[in-house]
Structures are given as structure tokens and as C-alpha cells.
Write a structure and sequence with these properties.
alpha/beta, DNA primase DNAg catalytic core, N-terminal domain, Dna Topoisomerase Vi A Subunit, Chain: A, domain 2, 2 domains, four-stranded antiparallel β-sheet
Length: 214
């Protein structure tokens, strides 16, 4: 809970709605074995690594749902491990797409903490691809409504990777019939850190108003 608060996520109702949990590690194999699940099945699912350890250890967990079913799990490390982890399978469609799909204007972010920050601030038309690369299925989702306006609010990285990904994606969206605008956050920020720094909903609305096409 301290980590969530540091990331600016304090709305308990939203935490419950998103199904956010925590995997301490060290107990999942024993728990699932007691439920009758074989080690081979746990390995195949990706929940256990080849050394028999929990794949998700000291990670905040977001369940990725599609049509009401969990299709993957995203784990954000709060320790020294690599920050991002998904189960070894497709990441599925855009996050929470069922609640966004009817919107004619959509905000697309990289990370799930970015999504949580924007939802908490009232921007419920926000979705995430869990990264900067959209699969063809995710691109099809964004373009399933002709002329949809997509605001791309990716990280403003020092190495320019987020900015370059925004431009490449904007071109893909425009070629597929959507209208894309790139939101320029302050240098070094992603939407989550931007709100943690004291940004208001009005500030972010102003950024959307100033977003530009390629």
C-alpha cells in the first residue's frame, strides 16, 4: 500500500476495481500444489520458473482481462528485479478495453500505473497497450471506430524512445483510419509521475488541448 501511495494511487475503490494485488513470492507453488495442481502445469502456465520459484515475487499484480476472463498477469517489481513481467503468452488486447471501446476519443498510455493515475483523475477513456508496441489486434481495437481520436501519452524518455514510439504509432494509426495526436509531457515524466508531481486534471486537459498531429 505504501508503494501504491508513492505512485499516487490512493483510491481504494479504484484499486479494487482494477483488481490490483501483491505477490510476495515464496508461497504460490506450495499453495497451488495443495490445491492439486501439478508442477508441470505450473511451469507450463509460467507461474513457476525452471528453478521451482514463483515467477512473480515482490510484485504488484494487475490482472489483464478480456471479455471477463483473465488472459494474463502483469507484475511490477517493487524490489531490485527487472521492473516488468507478464506471463509467457499473448498480453491480450488493450487493457480494460470493454469499458473504453465505445469512446470516440481515447487516451493511450504505456503503463498500467499511468492508466490508474488517469482513471483516478477522471479520464476514464484511457487504455494501455502495456508497452509502446501495439500488436495488430490492439491496433485493430483502436481503429474499429472510423475517425476515432487517439491521444498518445507515452513517456518522455531521456533517450527519446517513448517519443520515437509515439511518432511511429501515430503513423500506423493514421494509415488505419484513426486520428492521432501526440501528448507532450514534461521531460522525464510519464502520466503517473506527472500526477504525483502535483498535476491537476485541468493541467492534463490543457496538455490534451495542445497535443499535435504529426
Amino acid at each position: 500500500m505504501q508503494y501504491l501511495a508513492q505512485r499516487g494511487l490512493r483510491d481504494s475503490a479504484l484499486i479494487e476495481e482494477l483488481g490490483i494485488g501483491y505477490a510476495p513470492g515464496g508461497n504460490l507453488r506450495r499453495h497451488l500444489a495443495a490445491q492439486g495442481y501439478s508442477l508441470d502445469l505450473l511451469l507450463h502456465a509460467g507461474l513457476i520458473d525452471n528453478q521451482g520459484r514463483d515467477a512473480f515475487c515482490r510484485r504488484v499484480i494487475f490482472p489483464c482481462r478480456q471479455h471477463g476472463q483473465i488472459v494474463n498477469l502483469y507484475g511490477r517489481s517493487i524490489g531490485a528485479a527487472f521492473p516488468h513481467r507478464l506471463l509467457p503468452r499473448s498480453k491480450g488486447g488493450l487493457f480494460a478495453w470493454e469499458s473504453v471501446s465505445l469512446c470516440s476519443t481515447v487516451i493511450l498510455v504505456e503503463g498500467l500505473f499511468d492508466l490508474a493515475a488517469l482513471w483516478q483523475s477522471g479520464f476514464r477513456n484511457t487504455t494501455s497497450a502495456i508497452g509502446t508496441h501495439l500488436t495488430s489486434a490492439q491496433l485493430d481495437q483502436l481503429c474499429d471506430q472510423p475517425g476515432r481520436l487517439v491521444y498518445i501519452a507515452f513517456d518522455q524518455d531521456e533517450n527519446q524512445s517513448g517519443q520515437q514510439a509515439s511518432q511511429q504509432l501515430a503513423r500506423r494509426l493514421e494509415r488505419s483510419g484513426a486520428t492521432a495526436r501526440i501528448v507532450k509531457l514534461p521531460a522525464g515524466h510519464d502520466p503517473s509521475s506527472y500526477f504525483v508531481a502535483g498535476t491537476t486534471a485541468a493541467d492534463f486537459t490543457a496538455l490534451l488541448a495542445g497535443a499535435q498531429r504529426l
